Every structure is written in structure tokens, then in C-alpha cells.
Amino acid sequence: MNSNSIRWPLLILASVFAVPLTWFGLMAAAFSEAGWQNPIAVTLFWLLPSLSLPVLATYGLWKRVPPATMWGFAFCQWIVISWLNWDSYLQGRSTTSNPLLILLSGGVAFPVWCWIAIAAVCQLENHFRRKLGTLTRP
């Protein structure tokens, strides 16, 4: 079995998550304003999802990009959303004061789950590429 026969369907599956995530980021950029929140966190909130399709294209075209890159984006997105939730808490606009819940609240956001799905599919693609690449070597 050729590694490309499994590689491209998996990258297409990852793009199914990357396209709406990019759209989400572009819409967030168009309609967001910092207001009382930290402008750096607000910028990262829309910038990270906007980069999902270019990052996935780079991963697909350049085989040296590790899947850990996608996991890093998922982690950064989680941190940014938790940062915005902490900012809301410090401004007195939060529904909870439990620090653990505020930290974990970043994980329930749509961009985080999209990044996790993209990272998982890229991890699977990388596994198959390496496994099939070692089987086909002379």
C-alpha cells in the first residue's frame, strides 16, 4: 500500500475541520473588539483559528512539519481562551470563581476541539506515513 493512498484522504479529513475553523477565525477578526479585555488575548483568539488552513497546507506540502505543531496550536488556543476567561473573572464578569473551572473552561470552546481533531488526524497520518515508509524501503 502506498503511503499517499492513505495520506491524502486523512489530510482531506483534517481540512474538513480546518475550513470551518479558519472561517471562525476570520469572522471573529471581523466582528471582535477588545473593549475591556486584553487586546493581545483577543487578537490571539481570532489569529490562531485563522491560521489553521495555512498551517495544515504547510503540513501537507512539507513532510518535515511534525504533528506536534498542531498539538501546540491546540494547547495555545486553550490557553488563550482560559486567559480570556480569567480576564472576565478579574473584571467581575464571570459566573464562577473556581480557578480550576476557569482553567478547564478553555477546553470546551469550538476552536480548541477543532485544533484537537486536526492534530489527531495529522498524528494518525504521520503514523501511517512512517509505518508504510519503513515497509516500502529496500
Features:
138 residues; single chain
Structural commentary:
By secondary structure, the chain is mostly helical. It has one domain. Helices cover 77% and strands 0% of the residues. It is built from six helices and no strands. The protein is elongated and about 55 Å long. The model has no long low-confidence stretch (mean pLDDT 88).
**How far from one another are the termini?**
15 Å
Number of β-strand runs = 0
- Summarize the helix and strand pattern as letters: HHHHHH
What about the largest sheet? none
Fraction in beta strands: under 5%
Mean pLDDT: 88
Q: Which spans of ≥5 residues are poorly predicted at pLDDT below 50? A: none
Specify the number of helices: 6
Structural class of the helices, strands and pairings? Answer: mainly alpha
Give the CA-based shape.
elongated
Q: Please give the share of residues in helix.
A: over 70%
As a whole number of angstroms, the C-alpha radius of gyration is 18 Å
Number of domains: 1
Question: Could you give a short description of this structure?
Answer:
The protein is an all-alpha fold. The chain has helices at 3-31, 39-50, 52-61, 68-90, 99-104, 110-135. It has one domain (3-135).
Protein topology:
Blueprint: H1 3-31, H2 39-50, H3 52-61, H4 68-90, H5 99-104, H6 110-135
Helix pairs in contact: 1-2, 1-3, 1-6, 2-4, 4-6
